[in-house]
Amino acid sequence: MADWYILNTEDKSFRKAVTDEDKAEAYRIVRSKDKIVAQDQVGDAFVSTVFLGLDHAFLDHAFNEDRPVLFETLVMGDERDHDVWRYHTWQEAVAGHDTTVLSLLPTRSKAELEAVKAILEPLILAQEGARKESPAPEEPEQRIDHDDSQNHYKNNIDDLTNRGREWE
C-alpha cells in the first residue's frame, strides 16, 4: 500500500503522514495550490509539475523504493501530450520541469545547448548512481506506460542536441 506524505511549504521538505490528522493535512495540500512546483505554457503545450502527496514508487519499479516518489511533471497538449516524469525531491522536480520546458523550446544556438548540457549532466550522473543502487524487483506488479523517468534528462539532452544540429 502506498504511503501519504506532507509537504512543508516553507522549506519544500516532506515527512510521512502517520496519524489521521497527518493524512488529512496531506490531502489538504494536494487539493491546494501549495502542491504546485511550477507550471509553464510553451506553445501548444502546458507543462505542470506538482507534489503528489501519495508515494508513486509502486507504479514504476525503476525507482529506488527506499525513497518515495512524490513529484510529477506532466505535458498536456502538443505532440508530447501525456508525457510524464516522476521524481523523489522538490529539487529534482524543479530541474525536471525546467528540462521539460527547455526541451519544448526551439534551441537557438550551440552556446545555449552547451549551457543546458552543463546544467543537466550532473543530474544524469546522480540518476545513474541512484539506478545502480536500486535493483528492480524480480516480478514487478505494475509498470507505468510512459518514458522512463530515470532517463528524462538524458533524453532531453539528446533531443536538444538533435535540434541544435539543425541550426549548424
Structure explained in plain terms:
39% of the residues lie in helices and 18% in strands. The protein has 4 helices and 6 strands; from the N terminus they run ββαββββααα. A hairpin with a 2-residue loop joins β3 (36-42) and β4. α2 (90-104) runs parallel beside α4 (152-166). The longest helix has 24 residues, at 110-133. Mean pLDDT is 77; it is low at 136-150.
Summarize this structure briefly.
With 168 residues, this protein is of the alpha+beta class. Helix content is 39%, strand content 18%.
Helix content: 25-40%
Radius of gyration: 17 Å
Q: How is the largest sheet built, in terms of strand order?
A: 3-4-5-6
Structural class: alpha+beta
Strand content: 15-25%
Q: Total number of β-strand segments? A: 6
Shape: globular
N-C termini distance: 51 Å
Mean pLDDT reading: 77
Question: What is the number of helices?
Answer: 4
Low-confidence stretches: 136-150
Total domains: 1
Largest sheet features: 4 strands, antiparallel
Helix and strand succession? Answer: EEHEEEEHHH
Oligomer: single chain
